[in-house]
Fold this sequence. Notes:
alpha+beta, Alpha-Beta Plaits, six-stranded antiparallel beta sheet, two-stranded antiparallel sheet, 6 helices, 19% strand
Amino acid sequence: MVSKKSKKSEESSTSSAQLDQIANFYILPLHMPAISTTHSSPTYKNVLHYLYFKKHESPKQDAKTPKDRTLFLLNIPVDATESHIRDLLKPYGRVASIHFLNRVRDSNLSKEEREQQEELERLEREAEAAEEAQNNKTKKGSKKQQQQQQQQQQQATGAEDTQRRKLFATGSQAYVVFLEEQELVKALNMKKKKRSWIVTGPEATLADAAKLSSLGVA
């Protein structure tokens, strides 16, 4: 059960600002659960995954994905299920159906959506190349020394590393069909705020715990 205090903090974290956009897609940052892989690997905390979405647009009429009620999602998390997406969009409307797409084989994408996807991926590659070039330019000392410096900085500021997950090759797209047109409009107008893919800690529900268990995360 979520306390009144946690509800108030959730409300206060909501911004009136619209989500940022890139290549006609809205950018939705999602905070992922902390995962510790092995005893020799670090625990990944405060990992950000970027989900992109827009209104579905296609010259073809398809009863399964009506344009006035369908949201097109790109770069969905690798562990995505219908339950995850329904929970994420629950504040904005009732989801009638979800259609996951195979990025390589699916031909249901419109020409415009394919072009926008290619443009988005091009921008992602450019951003990664620029970041890598900057890292190489400012690189000092050995890898071990860099890790020690990062750890010292984290301890001094109390900050945690924020890492960005990459686009994966297949299964990264989905169509989400709402029951009514105004519910799609509400989703397209969502505001900036902290959103968690799966809630952890004291505010986690039994459903959240079940999702973590399904991923093999305690």
